[in-house]
Structures are given as C-alpha cells and as structure tokens.
C-alpha cells in the first residue's frame, strides 16, 4: 500500500522509478552463484586464525610466539609489534586501537595475535601455542558499574570531555553532551501530567548472517589486494592503510557481495591482520571469523540506561522534556550517547527541554553502528512515557503525537538537522490513524501499542561512472556496496534519465580503482546520495548525446532536445534518434560515451516511521506472540517499492528481536555466555507475522527524485510499540529489555501477588 | 583424527575396543558443536549410520524398535510410530530444524545427556528400553538408567546404544510432549514436559507417567503428579495437584535460558497442558494400535 502525499518536486509520474523489476543481482543470490568474501580462494592461499583474549580486562605481561612459529604448517605470526601505534586520525571509533591489543586487553575476544598456516586447523592449533601472560584486572560491564566512584578504569588517561569544568581525574566517562532550551521548571509547572521513568537496554548485535571474512594478497612490491565484504571498500582501504602505516595507493580493495551489515560492517577488524600475515608469508591469506568471534569482537550496539521526564497539559500539549542518557560504548569511546540525546525528543516540538547524555566505556566489544544507532533506546523511553501520558489524559496516542509532531520549519538541535525541511512525520501518523488495522477488535490477553520513530539519515560523498555501450545499453558503476537492493535502484534512476529499459542497464559495484571515492553504505544514504551521483552522470551523458545528435544532424546542439530517451530536433526537421542509434554511430561522432558524477551530497531527508503492534501474552508463561504488525514510513519517493518494503520489514523484524529476546549475557568474569544464534535469540521466520507496510511519500525537495533514506528508521519504533502493546494486554509497564517471557511472568506474578 | 564407518554392530564394537580414544556418533549435531567449543577431539570417530540395524524403525510382537542412529525426521513421520506414540513423534519433530532432524538421532539425544533433550521425557513416559552393545554382547536396560547427570551416562566407554524398544501401548493410552521456548523453533527447551495417560471408559485415569525436562540435572519423573492422576478424573482439582507436584519435583538452575523460578513455575504450567493433551488423545484413540 502506498500513500502519495503530494506531487513530486520534479515530475508527476515516472516510467521506471516506482516500478518493481527483478533485481539484477537477484538470480545469483538465489542460486548460490553470488560470491561472498569467504567464497574467495586464490592459488597458494593459506589460512589465518586470530588469537583472542579470554579475559575481560587484563594487563598483557608478555606474548611469546616461539613455539607457535615452529608448529606444523605455520607460515607467519603477527603481534602488536607488527603494527604502528594508533595515530590521532585512527578513525571512528578508535579503529586502530581496537585492531590488536597493545598493553592491555579490554574485553573478552579482543585480538592479541594472529597466525597463518597451510590449513585452518594448523593455524588454530598454532594459535593455541602462543603463550600470553596476563595480569587480570577488575572489570566493569554496565554503565552503573563503570560510572561508580572508584570503578576500575579502562583507560588510565581518559578525562571526561564536555563538562563545565574539566575533571582532573580519569574516569570511564568519555564525554558528556548537554543541550537545553526554554525554561524547564516553568515548563513542568505548566503541565497537568508529569511522568518520569528509568529504562535500561542490553547490548545487542546486528546479527548479520555473514561473518566477517577477507582474503589479502600482498606482493613483494609492497602492494596488497584485499577481497572482503564490507559496507564501504574505500573505508577498508583508508582504514587498513592507516593501521599499517601504508599509503592508500598500496592497497586495492575489491568488494565481495555482502551478507548483511546493518551498520556492523562500517568498520574493519581483519584486513590489516591478513595483509600483514600475507606479507610475512608471501602468500594470499584468508581469515574467516567464526560466529563466536563475530559476537565477541564485532558489532554490537550499546547497552543503555535512560531517564526521561515529560510534562503535558490536559489537552495533550507537551510542555517540557528532560532526558538523562548513559550509553555504553564498549572498550573505546564512540558517539552513541550524543546521538541518543539528539534523537530522544526529535519527533516532538517541546518548548522546554534539557538533555544530558554520557558516553561510558565498559569491558565489552567496541560498539559500532546498528541501524539508526542510538535512536531505538531513546525512543523506548520517550514513546513509552508518551503512551502513559495519552492514557492518563484519555487521548488517542496517535492524536497526541499529531498534536506535538515536528514539521517543516521546526528546530532540531542536532548538528545533522538544524531546521527541518519538508518532512513526513504527520503523514505517517495519519496513515496509521486511518489504517483499518488500527481498529481491529482485540481478544482476551491481546494488546495494541503504537510508537513513532525518527532518524536523521546522512548524505556524504558518492561517485558514479556511467558507460554507454556501442549498442545503446548502459553500465552504471558506483562505489556503494549493495546491502539492500541499491543496484536496482541505481539502474531505475538511470533508466528514467536515459530512457533505456532498466533490464538493459547493468549496475555494478566497482572496486577502489574502478570508480571514484565513495563513502560507506550507511545512514540510509546510498539511494539518496549515490543516486544523485548517478543522476548527475546521466545528465552529463544526455548533454553528450545531444551533442552527438547535433553532429549527426549537422545542426546546433541548442536545436536538439532530449525527450523520453530520444533526441528530437526542435524544428522537427529530422526524425528522432534513439540512444542506441546515437551510440551506434559513436565512432564517427567522437568515440565512446561515458560520464562521471561525483558529489558531496547535501540535503538528505530525515525519516519517520509510525507503527502498530498487536500481540498476545500467554498469562501462564509470559510469552508475547506478535499477531499483527503494521508500519508506515515516509520514503520520500520509493524508487523500487519492494526494496523499500523490505527495509521497512527488516527494521521491524530486528526491532522485535531486540524488544523481546536479544541480549548479551555475561558471566561474572565478563565472558559472554551466548555467542551463537541458538542462545542469542534473533527472531526466526515463524516468530513473525507478515509485516504490513504503508509507504508514505512526502518527496524530499533536495533530491531529483524526492528520495529520503529508508534503511534505518524502521527499527526505532518496535521496542516501545511492543512495550505499549504488552501494557495494553496486561497492564504491565516494562522498562527493562529484553521483555522476555521471564521478565513478563515476573511482572505478572507481582501483579497477582504470586511468588 | 581417523573416521570409520563400520557396517555391523560387531565391527563397531571391535573398533571401539581397538582405540581407547574413540567415539561413536550418529548425526554429530551435538558432537561437532561440542568439539568446536573445545571438547577434546577423539583419535577415532566411529560413524554408526553405516550399520543398517541402527538406522531403521521396525515392529514385531507388539514392540516398536527404533535404531539408535535413525534420523529423528523419520521418527517424526513414521505412521505407526506416530499413531502409537504421538508425543515421541512430536518431541522428535521439535529438535532444531529440518536440516538438524535429518541428521539427529534418538541415540545421540539420549547420550548427550542434556537435561533439556527433547526426546528423553517422551522415551521415559513410554518406559522405553535401550539395547546396549559391547564386546560382551548386548544388554537391555530402561532408558531412565542411562543418564546419570548433565552430560554423563552409565554406559562404559566401549559400549554404545544399538536400539530403543517400546511396547505397544494399551488401549485408551496416549502420550504428549510440550516444551517452552521463547521463540517458535530453533531453540533449546527452557522447560519440557511429557505425559502418558491411560483412561478407562469413564475417562478416569488408570495409569499416568509424567516427566519434566530442563528443570533438574537430568530429566525427572514426577511421581506425586502421577499419583494425583491415577484413579482420578482429569478435572481442575487433579490438574492443580499436577501443577504443584510438577513444580515441586524441579531443582532447576538459573542460566542463559531462564531463571530457576521461571522454570519451576512453567514446569507446572506445561505439566497441566501436556496432561490435558495426552488425555484428549487417549479419549480420541480408543483401542490399542
Ligand atoms: C542447531 C541445533 C539445534 C538443536 N536443537 C535441539 C532441540 O531443539 N532439542 C534437542 O533436544 N536437541 C537439539 N539439538 C541437539 C542435537 O541435535 C540433539 O541432541 C540430537 O538428537 C543429537 O543427535 P546426533 O545423532 O546428532 O548426536 P551426535 O552428535 O552424533 O552424538 C551426541 C553424543 O552422543 C553420543 N552418541 C551418539 N550416538 C550414540 C549411541 N548410539 N550410543 C552411544 N553414544 C552415542 C556421541 O558420542 C556424542 O557424545 C540441537 C543441535 C543443534 C546443532
């Protein structure tokens, strides 16, 4: 279902944009022909194994590789001594520091050394012979533990940034961000209802199915080729060069197909190890993570503790909002607290606001982006309190949100937005309010919850090269790994611009030497920003095509118009020339036609999503079963509606897992207890109903086709939507994740005075 | 490490005796993950799936015989087995996924000796016996004598399970199995419960066996619950006693899969539900199969 809200800024209707062709890479992904990073093999290739810390926090006294080096099949061993110390521009979030432990290990799973041997088994056996002497240190696992007075320190020199007075003592608090506007006390004084609650969330992993993997082949001239799956091979190139102290020109990175990333592949872990091992062994080296490594040393998104206080008048007007947010960042600082603070009240126009957020290091893996990073936890707090207010003042929760929703011209304090341009929050709220699913009657033990979510989206650098073939087809080369169907979206926009059937356009993801610099596929930016680069290249090609037609007609280029994929003579003196007719004569008019579009994109459109969750709680076991799920999201323009729906559904599915069952479980020593999909419970297909989608289209005025990013915001509302639905079904307000059967039953027992 | 695939029980026995660090396996769906997790690798891996006797389901003289290495996907769908032991069929069908079930076996499920193994409660309420082979020949013991603790069995290192024997149930008798998992599939039981009931013509319970999984170091029978059922109609009062008795028999731990309080409480809930299910089947079923 699609709700078109207003006319597109450019064109009313499109021939190709908005259609649903089979994706160009679809068949190979279905029949198994697509090559992921771990599928790569090279002649003489050997295998790497990474030795990881068994301890959550310890001083490294010594690393002795003598015995490992003499083990059968071993060709190379690397330790911290093989890598330069991290420099200032080591990349976010402290990528180089995280590559390999130097003086200390700061989480279980951190890299200590790596071995390459003829077989995987030999490499593993040899790694077990590396003698590492540790001096165990006390560790901290939660923001409470880490922020406590006298807590063991992860970094002896970490001084909190952003406080009014710079502290003299180191702590585990890396940064504080603060924002206020209006008069908070006056705002709360004006309110008829005020609620304040504390929420906690656990560390969860992106849960992509493909483990990190790479093959590096370093030659004696000091150059290396890397095959890997990532969300951005240019990032892999620069980060690997930085960690090795190499020039980027020494590295070529070839993107493999990617089996999921969700933000988790916006950084690197293995590539510098593989390059170095390959250099030492003089052989190609492949490293593939095991699932356990993926859980213990990559990804996850922070655990948090958040307090939110919101005041409202009886008529539903929000008068004041106060938020205190502490985000873990893992063993090295990130920016997760700041992002959470930026998102916590973003959907609402609240006059009096105070937001204070903290970035806290803990002895857990270094956090990295996960789909709308930091927003879902903040939304859990705000959207649950909003629901409570709506119930208290007996107002429909969607109407309450509509009354306070931000719109064009409203201020947003984040550096990524400032003042909102045309946005579609109200339209998503109306789409849900008017949806038949919002009115379906519920049975016993069933409940309905709604929630709204916001995400910035980002823009950044993109490049595209479009080559026309001699027979009038086009090859569209971009530097954006395709993680959600972006290839076909690029092809659709090129088809629209050039007037070629989309099936004759071949979209390609080029390696670092085949296309211009392109930032990571993240922040829902690719269809927006790389799409703009493609459009730019196509428009340049149209100019060239007009010039070629002018040569063919021996007229002035001003007399040639490009309409519906054909050159038309303005005086109608010639019959129109198709693109294929022009390329067929290219040899006579100046040679092959191609063009490049590169830009630092601006004007990405913030995204909003509003969702309804219907669920049923088994009162005897506490298990919540999702009965129906409806999501309305503003896509701007859906270039390929199926992949927009796929993104919307994917976000919801991950949000449901996060809400109900997913969590990192550690023992007392900080060792993860569930590093596998058997006990780290992401939803399986049969856990979910078909997630119903409503694509709302409020075009982004800053994009030639009105595109907003669609990849992330879908994960923001599910946690509060589910919490609100559980409340509706049972009367329980759950404020700690996950809302597992154990938690729900505990709550029900308390309610019933049992246990 | 060496891999062998003997074709007869005798061959397997002599291979087992030839190498002290050897290990039999069927589907290896427990063995491989355990070895990846650090279980020492044996020198000799003996694949039992090449022995025809261990990979079949057969009937003779009112007995059902299931080879220890038979894939549970067959146990799940075998028509005669399903009619006589619907609960064993359903517990087999809950293991992992289709792919796992095509490899996994009853012998492996029993000998892994996990407290949460899905088929053990069903085997116990049906009073299954196991035939064990060693160089001294074979011996037959009740399935309840095999598991001695989490991960440990009473079998000697040179013994292995050949087959399971189940007597055809009397008339108006049926079993059922239920487990609780937070998801719908691909999960390990937080608690499991099996029951087998025999009803008389007035729907009064004449015989009852109840077993609880994942709530104690081994699968446990719930004798107090069984006594509450025996001689009584299946009504609210009986069911309340069953619930209390099933919870009481548990001695669970708290771990990544659930807390002990949760397990104890839900054991009672599942026991009630599984008794109702078994009773419903017994009524529908009528005479012996
Ligand atoms: C993804 C996944 C999901 C799973 N889900 C479930 C589930 O839902 N429920 C559940 O109960 N289990 C589950 N399991 C565990 C496992 O699949 C079962 O326990 C299965 O029945 C084991 O059978 P197998 O033939 O694969 O055992 P194997 O791995 O071959 O053997 C297991 C152990 O038993 C021993 N053994 C095997 N056969 C014999 C024999 N005949 N005599 C003596 N010793 C023997 C082996 O030496 C080994 O120690 C799951 C496993 C995986 C990997």
Protein described:
The complex is a heterodimer of chains A (755) and B (289). Chain A has 755 residues and is of the alpha+beta class. In chain A, 27% of the residues lie in helices and 25% in strands. Chain A has 20 helices and 29 strands. In chain A, the strands form seven sheets. Chain A has a seven-stranded mixed beta sheet. In chain A, strand 15 (318-330), helix 10 and strand 16 form a beta-alpha-beta unit. In chain A, helix 11 (375-392) packs parallel to helix 19 (718-730), helix 14 runs parallel beside helix 15 and helix 18 packs across helix 19 (718-730). Chain B has 289 residues and is an alpha+beta fold. A five-stranded antiparallel beta sheet of chain B has the order 4-5-10-6-7. In chain B, strands 11-12-13-14 form a four-stranded antiparallel beta sheet, with helices on both faces. In chain B, strands 1-3-2 form a three-stranded parallel beta sheet, with helices on one face. Classes of the chains: A alpha+beta (755), B alpha+beta (289).
Summarize the structure.
The complex is a heterodimer of chains A (755) and B (289). With 755 residues, chain A is α+β, with helices and mostly antiparallel strands.
The first-to-last residue Cα distance of chain B is: 46 Å
Tell how many strands the DSSP assignment of chain A holds.
29
Tell me about the largest β-sheet of chain B. Answer: 5 strands, antiparallel
Look at the structure and give the mean pLDDT of chain B: 96
Structural class of chain B: alpha+beta
Give the largest interface pair and sizes.
Answer: A-B, 25 and 20 residues
Report the count of strand segments of chain B: 14
Q: What CATH architecture label of the largest domain in chain B applies?
A: 2-Layer Sandwich
Mind telling me which CATH architecture of one domain in chain A this is?
A: 2-Layer Sandwich
Distance between the termini of chain A: 47 Å
CATH fold naming of the largest domain in chain B? Uridine Diphospho-n-acetylenolpyruvylglucosamine Reductase, domain 3
Q: In terms of per-residue confidence, which ranges of chain A show pLDDT below 50 for 5 or more consecutive residues?
A: 6-11
